[in-house]
Structure formats: structure tokens, C-alpha cells
Amino acid sequence: MTRNLAIANRLREVLLNGKWVANTNFKEQIVSVSWEQAIQKVDSLNTIALLTFHVNYYLAGILNVFNGGKLEIRDTYSFDLPEIKSESDWNTLVRDFLSNAEMFANQVEQMDESRLDQPFADEKYGSYLRNIEGVIEHSYYHLGQISLIRKMIVQK
């Protein structure tokens, strides 16, 4: 198995259909909550909607680089979730996230393996591989938060 295929499989595992490491994945967690649950605050924690937006923000920004664009995302804006006022708003965010997740994994799978070792956007950001692995780690971190927040909401 090539490195890019192995990494694409890891991305799909955390984002779309895996169960191996966390016994769940982003898709499973976010499609099963209502919009009211997605925006419900639990103490000072971020909401499920905000965490979904946050991870999707990075997926979209890195996809832009994969497609030959510039790195235009900034940490400062990664939590600027537009207000979710309805089920339709939530469903749009979920669809956007799932679409970007699948495109991201597909791009990695189809990427020339030598590109993994090349600088990502600028040498100061490390290699493509480092950034893709960062997405996986970042996604697992926030997946754990979402899973716990869901449990807290259901227990209320």
C-alpha cells in the first residue's frame, strides 16, 4: 500500500467511516444530532456546530492549496461560525463538512506520493505529509470533544 493511500484511509477513518481508533468518526457523531443539540452550549465548552465548522475550515483551506491556490486560512478566523438558526443551516454545514472530508481524502489518495515530502505552501509550514497528519491529529482531538459534548447533552 502506498503512503498516500494509507493516509487517505486514516483520513476516512476519522472523518467519514472508521471505528478503529475512536470507535466512532465525525460523520457518525454529527449526522445524529439535531440543530438544537449542535448549537447547545455545555458550560464553557465549544458547541458541536462550532467544532464542526472549525475542522471544516481547515479542510477547505488546505484543499485550496491542494488545488493550486494559496494558503489563505488563518487561525484567527477558524471559529467564525455563521449563526446556525435552523435545521437547514445545520444540514448545510454537515453536508459541506462531509463533502470537503471526502474531497480531502480523495485528493490525498490521488496525490503523487513524492508530493508528500514537498513543502506545503511555504517551507515554514513543513511538508504536505506533516500538514495532512496534522489534520488527522486535529480531527481526532475535536472528535473526542464532540463525542463527550454529545454525551453531556443527552444526559441533561
Number of alpha- plus pi-helical segments: 6
Largest sheet: none
**In CATH's first tier, which class applies?**
Mainly Alpha
N-to-C series of helices and strands: HHHHHH
Give the total of beta strands. 0
Rounded to the nearest angstrom, the radius of gyration is 16 Å
Quickly give the CATH architecture.
Up-down Bundle
Beta-strand content bin:
under 5%
Distance, first to last CA = 46 Å
Relative helix content: 55-70%
Uncertain spans: none
Given the C-alpha coordinates, what overall shape results? Answer: globular
CATH homologous superfamily classification: dinb family like domain
CATH topology: Four Helix Bundle (Hemerythrin (Met), subunit A)
Task: Please supply descriptive tags for the structure shown above.
6 helices, mainly alpha, Four Helix Bundle (Hemerythrin (Met), subunit A), 156 residues
Describe the structure.
This protein is mainly alpha-helical. The protein has a single domain (3-155), classed as dinb family like domain (Four Helix Bundle (Hemerythrin (Met), subunit A)). 62% of the residues lie in helices and 0% in strands. The protein has 6 helices and no strands. It has helices at residues 3-17, 26-31, 35-39, 48-66, 87-110, 128-155. The longest helix is centred in the C-terminal third of the chain and has 28 residues, at 128-155. It is globular, with a radius of gyration of 16 Å. The N and C termini lie far apart (46 Å). The model has no long low-confidence stretch (mean pLDDT 96).
Gist of the model:
With 156 residues, the chain is mainly alpha-helical. It contains six helices and no strands.
